[in-house]
Specification:
Layout lengths: L1 E7 L2 E5 L2 E18 L11 E17 L15 E8 L8 E16 L4 E10 L8
Antiparallel strand pairs: 1-3, 2-3, 2-5, 3-4, 4-7, 5-6, 6-7
Length: 132
């Protein structure tokens, strides 16, 4: 399995139409190999690239002082959408784009009249676009 590890400090996501700001993240990009050895490969093993996924952790923040309404409910079965994990300055528009992210585990904290934050373990679901 080929793996690539990256980390960053900024990102965006949505849950139920509510915008979340990602204050830090790390991810692993992984591609599985598949064995394509057969009788026509003259005794040599051959392989190809198989399925790919991204997984990692992120810290998402919803600030009661700047956002309208109530904070979203995020639990271990939440689906985040339109996730952008920025590489460096967001103005450079270099980011991983994950249309669907499954939340696997979550730890939340809340301050009185302040920000609500979540530490989330996640994995991609379906196609994604790695940063170019």
């Amino acid at each position: 399995m080929a793996q690539d590890h990256q980390a960053g400090k900024l990102g965006k996501a949505q849950v139920g139409g509510v915008d979340l700001h990602i204050s830090q993240w790390q991810c692993n990009s992984e591609t599985r190999e598949f064995d394509s050895t057969n009788t026509g490969t003259d005794g040599y093993e051959t392989a190809g690239h198989g399925t790919s996924k991204m997984s990692g952790t992120m810290r998402a923040v919803w600030d009661a002082n700047t956002a309208a309404g109530l904070p979203p409910l995020i639990d271990r079965e939440t689906i985040l959408t339109n996730v952008r994990l920025y590489i460096g300055d967001p103005a450079n528009s270099v980011f991983h784009l994950l249309p669907i992210v499954l939340v696997l585990s979550v730890n939340s904290t809340s301050e009185v009249h302040g920000a609500v934050s979540w530490e989330v373990s996640w994995r991609s679901s379906g196609p994604f676009t790695p940063a170019q």
